[in-house]
Here is the input.
Amino acid sequence: MATALVTGGTSGIGAAFARALSLRGYDLVLVARDEERLRETAAELSRDGATKVETISADLSVRADVDRVAERLESADAPIDFLVNNAGFGIHGSLLERDVSIHERALSVMCLAVLVLGGAAGRAMKARHKGTILNVSSVAGTIATGNYSAVKAWTTAYTEALAVELKGTGVQVTAVLPGWVRTEFHERAGIRTKSIPEFLWLDADALVEECLRDVAHGKVLSVPSKRFRFLMLFTRHLPRRTIRWISGRISSSRSKPIVPSEAKTS
Here is the structure.
């Protein structure tokens, strides 16, 4: 039986990946901070007895916790066949703030942890000549809406670099770049979404199904939905000064004076 490890697997896109992989016959290892939510999600997924669910309570902003998850990824006795690096949270704060703790946490969870876990999975999978590493990035990484865009731009670039290193080893590496997805992500981050047109919103389960099809076809970058693939043409080819202007309009339309909070989605 193949096993998938999903970080941030108790809500939003992460939970959608856990459900989809369970339906495909994978056993699961769910990683999240909230132990109660982990237990509830595990019970729901394994209710019919079809899926074995292991849980790891870990805060991926803490290096010792990241290392524990990395050890699980490199286990030879219980190998992981599919890694979903999904844990993350919205960053609703100015780059000019004196207190940069939210940005430090973001870099730890969405960059350093992704780097460490991707490397651990890559080493183990390369040795077995098979496996999949999927990093959840965002179309936000193609524009310039604060540190979240910077973090997700790094995730996409890192994924492509890892795919180059693992080319020909039997390990598939993919980054999924979602647009706006209906989850609790934006609410928990304090981001206003009323200005976002209804047609731009995506369903998490549909997004995951399209992404997994892209993975099966060996794509390194997956941009679910035709509407966002179309929008990506503009972000890739418009002058960067135009992208910066658009980014400023997006940022101002969803500003809200609220302290950022974590959501285990991306």
The radius of gyration is 18 Å. The longest strand covers residues 27-32. The beta strands are 3-7, 27-32, 53-57, 82-85, 131-136, 171-176, 221-222.
